[in-house]
Amino acid sequence: MVSIHVQSVDQLKAIKLIKGKITDLDRMKIEEQKKAVRSGYDMEIIPSDLATYGGEAKKILDDLQSRNERMFLVTVLFLNTAKTKQELDSAVFQTAGIAQKFNCTLNRLDYLQEQGLMSSLPLGNNLVPIKRALTTTSTAIFVPFTTQELFMEGDSLYYGLNAVSNNMIMADRKQLKNPNGLILGTPGSGKSFSAKREITNVFFTTTDDIIVADPEGEYYPLVEALGGQVIHISSTSKDYINPMDINLNYADDDNPLGMKSDFILSLCELIMGARDGMEPEEKSVIDRCLPLVYQKYLNDPKPENMPTLGDLYDCLREQKERQAQRIATALEIYVNGSLRVFNHQTNVELDNRIICFDIKELGKQLKKLGIYDKYGQAVLDRTLRLAAATWEGENNSFSGNILMGIARIVVAYGDTVRDDVFKDHVGRVSVKAIIRAAKERRPGALGYSEAMIIEYNKKSKFRLSLKTLYGGKAMSGEDDFGEE
Predict the structure, then answer these.
(1) Which of 244, 292, 393, 470 is deepest in the core (most CB within 10 A)?
(2) Residue 245 and residue 367: Cα distance in Å, rounded?
């Protein structure tokens, strides 16, 4: 056990003490010079310790007077315990060896064991008369002053040990300035175990709701053991979630349909895979259909009156505009085709405190309907290693566009994107240059995708074709690699 006692010294007393020491050293230096003269030696030849100590004392005095340093009396105690005297002697010897390695000398407290024990206890009393004078800078090198501890009260969770002090890290994400977190590590280092441990801690320590998106099917056994709801989503699953579900109490204002409209527009845009986003006419058509689709439920909010994608599809077919027919055609595979798993009423309970969405068997096309493929696991592993941005919550923000741009690159090109080339070629480009190039290409995340691919292709043996980004369609006015 290590105990450190630090006692501050009044500044005037400290300066007076150092001046007194300097005077004593000067007197000793004069005595040595007199001895040298009497013995016939050069008076400049004096013991090296006097020269060293004199220089250090003058430096300390300068620090105290001109560098805003203070003086502290420090006592460092090492308490060794063992079951036998032999083990105790071995522990003392090892401790002394470690100290000697760093040019420090430890004094055994012979006949002062009781004072040493009482001083080692967390009572704040120093009964040991051995003290060392140190300045602020020298005192600050000790562990309590060189490590930032994170130990919060309340619903705090265990996040490991401080690498410097070995104290526990206890934190409540909700009270931190940034509540988000990432678990990074090499394969087999325990990332999944850490996530499961945190899920368990949150479940038993707090009353928070827990939502788990499980892309590899490794978390649902834990959720089942905790009594949670597991929802298996796949093309053959009997668990259904209706993307048209609306909560009338979701919005703070009196228009929950407005909040839902934004989601449906994003959903349709993702399904259609529009190169430059949806056209204003297409958005207007969808916005016109939504009140008609939800009218029956809003008049009589019963679960059976909740609309599905099929109702939106039928409403679009009834519209005369060609844009409506185009949107309906894009929806058809998810309504009447082989990917109609999302065209059902929700038949699972979503009011459980802990819910796990098992999407391991969810196909690539169906993942387009989930936020998970838009921002998540399908691209998360590589995106986090390639992107240096923070999600700000706005689709048109720089970080939102850069993350979506990289997500589109990874989805389109897969493992053909080489991380080392991406880091070397794209990582050296400034943020302003990427923004400027993206705006010159086209609006939104696609502009950022193209800008990053063009930088990736420069002086690269592993060039990527822009056609792949758009499903093999040719680009007008430039070659396959974005060059005019």
Answers:
(1) 244
(2) 18
The pLDDT of residue 317 is 92
Token couple for 446:
């696609």
- pLDDT of 8: 87
Distance spanning both ends of the chain, measured CA to CA: 70
At 12-32, the pLDDT tens digits run 888 888 888 888 888 888 888
pLDDT confidence band for 265 (50 / 70 / 90): confident
The pLDDT, as a whole number, for residue 222 is 92
**CB burial of residue 97 (10 Å; 0-12, 13-18, 19+):** exposed
C-beta of residue 125 within 8 angstroms of C-beta of residue 117: no
Residue 367 — very low, low, confident or very high, per pLDDT cuts 50/70/90? low
Q: Is pLDDT of 359 > 90?
A: no
